[in-house]
Amino acid sequence: MKASELAKILGGTLEGKDVDIVACGGLEEARKGDLSFCKDPKHVKLVQETQASAVLLPKDWDQGAPCSIIRVKEPNEACMKAAEIFAPPAPKREPGIHPTAVIDPSVKLGKRVHVGAFTVIEKGAEIGDDSVIEAQVFIGENCRVGDESHIYPQVTLREGTIIGKKCILHCGVRLDGDGYGYNTSIGLTGIKIEKIPQLGIVELGDNVEIGSNTTIDRARIGRTYIGPQTKIDNLVQIGHNVKVAGYSGIIAQAGVAGSTQIGKGCLIWAQAGISGHIKIADGVQVGPQAGVPQSLDGSVKYVLGAPAESMKDFGARTLLPKMVAKLKADVKELKAKVG
């Protein structure tokens, strides 16, 4: 595709040669024929050194480039749109049931549903219209999957799970496993550990997306709930009876302990840990690797550290050792001058 044609599709303006574009690539790995992008002037060196044939740049970019430039309003969005043009089409799952799938006669399948090879759907389950259930999925008794949802291979939904409309569950997601609940007692015969029955369910609202190998525990009683439009990354652990109000993000390797409530519009960054039985107010962000031992009322919108604190307090605490070291050096220098 010619750069001029691509610029027209992307709503941009071409500057330089009308080169051929065949693929997209990052600034550092791009080769001849590739389109790349940059939206931040701090990466000007990468732009100047790129081997790409053309680069998507903001309209106010004034640092030039060693190749053709396509000026657009938002380079990141434009690059994603371009990538869809050059990427091979995603596999299309046609409606139908693979002959190796095991589906109980009582299951209610909606219209135009795809069920892949070696998938098991147990009695009482309901699958909504236009849903795609890929290979090797297990859907337990009385589960409900909403219209237009897509469940990728090797996902497990234990009994009673409720999935909203247009949800996406990536490979290896596990929903509705037992939460961590035990009673410990010490008697004449020694320590006794008894399992607390986990009798609730997991429910997802509409348009929830869950990354690979994430686990969400069933409630002890009632439900563990993930509200609409929530996006959860890979390798996240969410404990029993957690409630996420919706429109929030939880990033890779974060952990949320049982019975915690997370408000709307929150963002829990990678490897953050949130204690149980606390509340996170609407719009709060928990920074990477932060540890949250108590409720956050929203008076501080971004917390860091362990235990988590405001960015101001975190910065002051982490800078203190450096300030002390500098003060010691200054005192030593003064002593030397005094004699």
Show unreliable segments. Answer: none
Distance between the termini: 76 Å
| Number of separate strands | 38
Helix content: 10-25%
% residues in beta strands = 25-35%
How much is the average pLDDT? Answer: 95
Shape: flat
Provide an overview of this structure.
The protein has 339 residues and is of the alpha/beta class. Strand 3 (34-37), helix 2 (44-49) and strand 4 (54-58) form a beta-alpha-beta unit. The strands form 6 sheets. The chain has a 12-stranded mixed sheet. Strands 7-10-13-16-19-24-27-30-33-36 form a 10-stranded parallel sheet, with no helix packed on it. The chain is flat. The model has no long low-confidence stretch (mean pLDDT 95). The chain is built from 4 helices and 38 strands.
Task: Please render the helix and strand layout as text.
Blueprint: H1 3-10, E1 13-15, E2 23-24, E3 34-37, H2 44-49, E4 54-58, E5 68-72, H3 75-86, E6 96-97, E7 102-103, E8 108-109, E9 114-115, E10 120-121, E11 126-127, E12 132-133, E13 138-139, E14 144-145, E15 150-151, E16 156-157, E17 162-163, E18 168-169, E19 174-177, E20 182-187, E21 190-195, E22 201-204, E23 209-210, E24 215-217, E25 223-226, E26 231-232, E27 237-238, E28 243-246, E29 249-250, E30 255-256, E31 261-264, E32 267-268, E33 273-274, E34 279-280, E35 285-286, E36 291-292, E37 302-304, E38 309-310, H4 311-338
Parallel strand pairs: 2-3, 3-4, 4-5, 6-9, 7-10, 8-11, 9-12, 10-13, 11-14, 12-15, 13-16, 14-17, 15-18, 16-19, 18-23, 19-24, 22-25, 23-26, 24-27, 25-28, 26-29, 27-30, 28-31, 29-32, 30-33, 31-34, 32-35, 33-36, 35-37
Antiparallel strand pairs: 1-5, 20-21, 37-38
